[in-house]
């Protein structure tokens, strides 16, 4: 057996050589299908074209595209040059593009035509010299097709990628968190290879596995989960350009591995609940309900009760297996949730369907994931144990500390901020309050800076409250719980546009979306969901009053980060009048 690769370049070349005929990248219905041999050939050509534009080791290349094969091709080509490709969130404004591209010092930006307005308007004041368009010709740009025909005298592709070193910067993940200016998390080849090796010790992914890429490439979850992991393991990636088409894409692709954020799993739970409620055959409807109830018990207590397990297996074969096939989950052998807290009830429900959903925990600064539940020892309600090569411990105040090769090299060009989070002993201070049990399983309580201390001195986790309520009300898209130094908790509610549109249609509401936030039927459904969520909370945690906002919250805007985390301080300031009204007699 050959020695493990020391860089992603070496890993890619080894995988492409082992599986030349297998399809590596595709889009639904095989509209595009690229084998590993074709992937490797195009990486060589694109790398040559980028080198002709002046891209070299130590440079950065900015990418702005949806989930499409060209992202993988260009990103991989860039890091073969020793360059550092990074992705911009597609919702970025021209000012945000200018800020991040300027911080990174990128001379080349690669994007789709639809993002040219943000890219070109944000070009002023930066070092950008070339814009490459991946999906056609546009004035003032170079097309990817033309770039791939470039020739560069004296350029030695093989020698170039072999010169890349494990400590070289592989990518930047720009994260502003909930406050502060953007930070460029610099991740090395060594760190990402350690992260992939650690996670694959649990997931055991290989070239026969299939996964969907639909999260933003600017988020570490997609880069780790469907880009770098693929390069090492050889699994097939289906790129989904339109996240709204996820359900039909699942049926077409039938993935074996699926990772997503809590919101997607909550929606799946709501959709399956609706399917069961809508089952016309009363016998099958009753059997589905019983199967889910039994499955929840199995998820909680395992297979020790042989009679319970036998009854569940019989119902699974009769009604749940066809249901999984209908929604495209019949081949899923492992499902993963991360990036934000998810309710225990949703994890139990998905497992009850026969889909093995496990939780993990990570952040950009640890190259993706640092903990994960073992498939054969899943403890629902925890984010699992430390992955191989990762050390964990708790600070005196309960803050989770992490150490290992997976850690960031530092925040780009910002040693002061790096020193704030990585101490002299190499421990990353994560900002998450956690507990670790005697078996090493980790429970995340909340962000250190976000805990609510109410007027009576009780400490409350707002994310735990929000997770409990959202799990009971599919109409809620975003929820912000307020209660610091207050007598009780209140909530600002933002409706999920897809869910409320369907609700309006099913309940004969007016067609004007601007009326829905104040509609009595919508308000009653939200109130019922909040009351159901409150049943799972202690008295001091419960939401006593709420208001439904008529406006949406845009990722990257005032209220949300690009990764959909709440910006609590700006929310409290912007909606001060609404909050005060909720506390009025």
TrEMBL record:
Protein name (record): AMP-dependent synthetase/ligase domain-containing protein
Segments traversing the membrane: none
PROSITE patterns: AMP_BINDING
Pfam annotation, one family: AMP-binding
Keywords: ATP-binding, Nucleotide-binding
Listed GO MF terms: ATP binding; long-chain fatty acid-CoA ligase activity
Gene3D superfamilies in the record: N-terminal domain of ligase-like
InterPro entries attached to this UniProt entry: AMP-binding_CS, AMP-dep_synth/lig_dom, ANL_N_sf
This protein's GO CC annotations: membrane
Domain AMP-dependent synthetase/ligase, chain residue ranges per copy: 12-411
